[in-house]
Amino acid sequence: MAASGKTGDIGEGQHDRFLKAFDEYADALFRHAAMRISDRERAVDLVHDTFTKVWGYVRAGHEIESFRPFLYKVLNNLIIDEYRRRRETSLDVLMGLEGVDEGSFEDLHENNTEALAATIDGRRAFELLDTLPDMYREVIVLRFVDGLGPREISELVEESENVISVRIHRGLALLRKHIESEAAAREERRIMKQNKSEGTKNTK
Amino acid sequence: MKRFSEQLKKKASTISLSAAERRELRERLVAYMEYHPVSRRAEVFESTPTTAPVMDTYRTVSFSFRSLHLRAVAGLCVVCVVVGVPLVAERSLPGDVLYPVKVRFNEEVLSTLTFSPYEKIEWETERLGRRIAEARLLESEGKLTEEFEVEVAEAVKAHSDAAQREIETLRATDAEEAALAEITFSSVLDVQSMVLKSRDRGASSTIDVIAGAVEKERTEAAAAQGQSETTPSIERLLARIEQETTRAYELLETVKSYAREQENIDIERRLADIERKIASALTLRQEADTDEQAVRGLLREALQATQKLIVFMTDIDVRETIVVEDLVPVELTEAERTAVLETMLNEIQEQRTEFETAVPEVENDDVRAKIVASLNELNTQFAGAEQALEQSDLVAAEVATTEAYNLYQDIISMLQLHAGFIPVDPEFTTEPPTASSTNQVVVETATSSATTTLVGDEEASGIEQGTTSPERQSESGEDQAEE
């Protein structure tokens, strides 16, 4: 992603390449940040910080071959920092949950993940993504919104591909569970409302 | 899965930057990039071809043509001289063989690389700082002769004059930018002058001529700034403050790892003071019938304080010579000011009851009458201070409290002399408590609104510069608990 070599365009060239990267990826990075932290203003700030940090790297004389993975890496680190700062979720505890567990065969098999995803309504999933722990939200957004492959995600998150596959599978399973419970709750409310209106009619 | 992915993507695509957000973000980034350009060193590195292709060519040619081989060696020697000598010269000091290369070649070349008048002023200011740093280094090594000292003083004047000339040039095209440049120049001179003045004035100190030259330039710069008819607009001041504070925070992040914890706390406190000052300027600006000059004055102070902090963080010699309190004194919050006043008033109150028993013991009638008169005046000022505090009129409270405290000290001195009076507090000193040097105000809540206590001298020795440290607060709390 970033080469330690010192070759490449100088001055203006770096400047233009960097701004081109901004034009190309600013929206995607913002979307990613907003979906991860659910705070629009903060997401804008994180995108700004991402670009200033990467510029710092460029101005130190390093050449960046491909901006996309590098930008995602920096943004991801900033989001993790943001979570640590908020202390809403104990990251260590979440990380500990994964630990050395590389998942069962069912979790690992890509076909099973596909089959599981096929059973989920993407629109409902979008609405309930917030309810997932960030560990799962991170990989689901990277995989299904940003369109990164398991290998790219594994490099970004610094976990093995197996761990990523397991995480995606478990995230989807959890998401489906949330969608089902939410649908059940909605159905229950609907029935209660219906019964209530029927009761009112009978009384009349 | 495709369907799931498509649906999720479609919904996610509703989240995007608005055109205004995107434009603003891009502008912020471009401003940041302009303020932090690709360093010249990095460009030099980058423009240097990698070794492998050079060596390949060299090998291919050398085996074929001996004469070209020799030419390549000669060329390399020339490159070494052209690139190496200026690099080595950068570390030279007055008296070294390569010093003229540093001053008359390296720095002049860099001068030609600065295009805008503002950059030129910055560069001349930096050159001035370089000369002073060289003089300090020579002095510390005991090598600063009178000859070098005069040479440095002349260089200081030359760079200062060049900066002033550039300011005048800039004034013709952009008077506000020139005014901002004047502020920056003046801030740097303030720091350098303070550093030179605060150096040990022992027998070995031979830096007086330079200190005098810098002080003269500082006074002239301040006078020129005072006479200047243009003051930067609020927007321009705010924009420059934004740039400088961003840089200050970045520097703080950089120095955090190796600076002492107390230094970090001190700098953070000053940055918080600056933020508060900006906020109060902005509040003042919102008021009807606001005095715009007052707002500009506050912003100018904030800008100068930030620039001084930046010099403090970037110049190791400055950090070792002076403390941040000398450079940017701590500005007490309202809660802290109130705490200081309350402590002073409490102290007076505690002793006041003792006075009544001590006064009749004074044998000399004139002295007794004088003490009684002072005591009456003390009571009046004390009541005035308490009333002002109740009305949250801090300025009036400070005036009345200071007056009361002076009277209180006079009375104690007279009673000690004429009635053998011993103050309740055996460690009584004639110095009023302050929150800036020996005694520290500790505000025990983050909002600075709850209980405030004074930490004594012993505790304050751990806190050098009028800052509120959470660690100290907890220690203070533990001490009180033990008592």
Walk me through the structure.
The complex is a heterodimer of chains A (204) and B (483). Chain A has 204 residues and is mainly α. Helix content of chain A is 77%, strand content 2%. Chain A has a two-stranded antiparallel ribbon. The longest helix of chain A has 43 residues, at 161-203. In chain B, 75% of the residues lie in helices and 2% in strands. A two-stranded antiparallel ribbon of chain B has the order 1-2. The longest helix of chain B is centred in the N-terminal third of the chain and has 28 residues, at 146-173. Chain B is extended and about 110 Å long. The termini of chain B are far apart. Mean pLDDT of chain B is 74; it is low at 44-64 and 435-483. At the A-B interface, helix 1, helix 2, helix 6, helix 7 and helix 8 of A face helix 1, helix 2 and helix 3 of B.
What is the strand and helix layout of this fold?
The complex is a heterodimer of chains A (204) and B (483).
Chain A: E1 2-3, H1 12-37, H2 40-59, E2 63-64, H3 67-86, H4 91-98, H5 105-108, H6 110-118, H7 122-128, H8 134-145, H9 150-157, H10 161-203
Antiparallel strand pairs in A: 1-2
Helix pairs in contact in A: 1-2, 1-3, 1-8, 2-3, 6-10, 8-10, 9-10
Chain B: H1 2-12, H2 19-35, H3 40-47, H4 51-64, H5 66-89, H6 99-113, H7 117-140, H8 146-173, H9 175-198, H10 208-227, H11 234-255, H12 261-286, H13 292-314, H14 316-321, H15 324-327, H16 334-358, H17 365-390, H18 394-419, E1 440-443, E2 452-455, H19 457-460, H20 470-482
Antiparallel strand pairs in B: 1-2
Helix pairs in contact in B: 4-5, 7-8, 7-9, 8-9, 8-10, 9-10, 9-13, 11-12, 11-13, 12-13, 16-18, 17-18
